Amino acid sequence: MISKLKKIYKDVKSEGDEVIVDYFGLVEEKKLEEILNDLEKKTTIFSNKIKRRIFLITVEMLQNLYHHSVPDNTDNNEFDTCFFAITSSKNNTIFKFTSGNFINQHNLSNLEAKIEQLNQLSDDEIRTLYKNVLGNNEFSKKGGGGLGIIDIKRKSGLPLNFNKINFNKNLYFFNFIVFLENKN
Q1: Contact between 79 and 101 (Cβ < 8 Å)
Q2: pLDDT tens by residue, the chain, 184 residues
Q3: Torsion of CA 7, 9, 12, 18, to 10 degrees
Q4: pTM
Q5: Do the bridges between strand 171-181 and strand 94-104 make them parallel or antiparallel, or are there none, so unpaired?
Q6: For the CA atoms of the chain, what is the radius of gyration?
Q7: How many CA within 13 A on the CB side of residue 154?
């Protein structure tokens, strides 16, 4: 199974774009901090506006990996494996954020519906939804209020994309893909 994930990960990185940051492995808080530190060093050439958007999208996607991956109760930790990568086009006009993690069927269905809903909304409707969710003070069992994915959509301004691979009757590998245009 890990070999299947490594192939997906390799395909993400071999599309001819420049890799800004990437990670394949277990979701660990220390490693996520290292990714953010590495990202900060590698984005110094960009404007402050695009750096903020890159950083925000990255933080939200890494938090999703950390908080919403299916915990693996086996000895080999296969299902704890995830990946994250940011690539950019040769002229840095398009950034591609890609993450992948295991998710159960119930959470996948909810996430798909949320993404499809967000992709149907206008920018103004996204802003209104963000304000409504921000003001409702409702939190999930994992402490989130649903703002992360809304914020990703707000900051990217482009449709959110995903792929899924079924591993067994209740477990999927979810590949989340976000694009960001550098209009500077």
Answers
A1: no
A2: 667 777 777 777 656 678 899 888 887 888 888 999 999 999 999 999 999 999 999 999 999 888 877 665 555 556 667 889 999 987 888 999 999 998 888 889 999 999 999 999 999 999 999 888 888 766 555 555 578 999 999 999 999 999 998 888 888 889 999 999 998 6
A3: -120
A4: 0.88
A5: antiparallel
A6: 16
A7: 16
d(CA 119, CA 66) in angstroms, rounded, equals 24
Beta bridge partners of 104: 171
Tokens of 78: 């296969």
In 3D space, the residue among 83, 115, 79 whose CA is nearest the CA of residue 99 turns out to be 83
The contacts of residue 60 (CB under 8 Å, 6+ apart) are 148, 149, 151, 152
Question: Of 118, 130, 106, 104, whose CA–CA distance to 159 is shortest?
Answer: 118
